[in-house]
Write a structure and sequence with these properties.
Layout lengths: L1 H21 L8 E2 L2 E3 L5 E3 L18 E2 L2 E2 L5 H27 L5
Antiparallel strand pairs: 1-2, 2-3, 4-5
Length: about 110
């Protein structure tokens, strides 16, 4: 009976310590899962666009401009637009080449 209480106490202490340490961090500026390590070593959620900030790592977009978080850049949309632009450019170049290489029919 005594051993069960000791084991229960040890497990409880370990659980409490893991919960407490989960709220703290060791390196300022580290980010994980939309959280960042603040200057007072607290794990805090990253801020949305237009929220006040003092450093880039506080913002979801990793961009603190004039003490406000900037909007996140939509890299997927930018990437897709770039590929469409490149594809259209290649098609146009191909058409120009075909026009100049085509033998005239008199």
């Amino acid at each position: 009976m005594y051993m069960k209480k000791v084991v229960f106490a040890i497990i409880s202490i370990l659980i409490i310590l893991s919960l407490v340490s989960a709220e703290n961090c060791t390196q300022i500026g580290n980010r994980t899962a939309k959280m960042y390590c603040s200057s007072d070593y607290q794990l805090l959620p990253q801020k949305n666009a237009t929220e006040r900030c003092s450093t880039n790592y506080e913002c979801l977009a990793n961009d603190c401009v004039y003490s406000f978080c900037a909007k996140e850049k939509n890299t997927d949309a930018n990437s897709m637009a770039s590929w469409i632009f490149i594809l259209i450019g290649l098609i146009l170049i191909g058409l120009v080449i075909l026009v100049f290489l085509r033998k005239p029919t008199y």
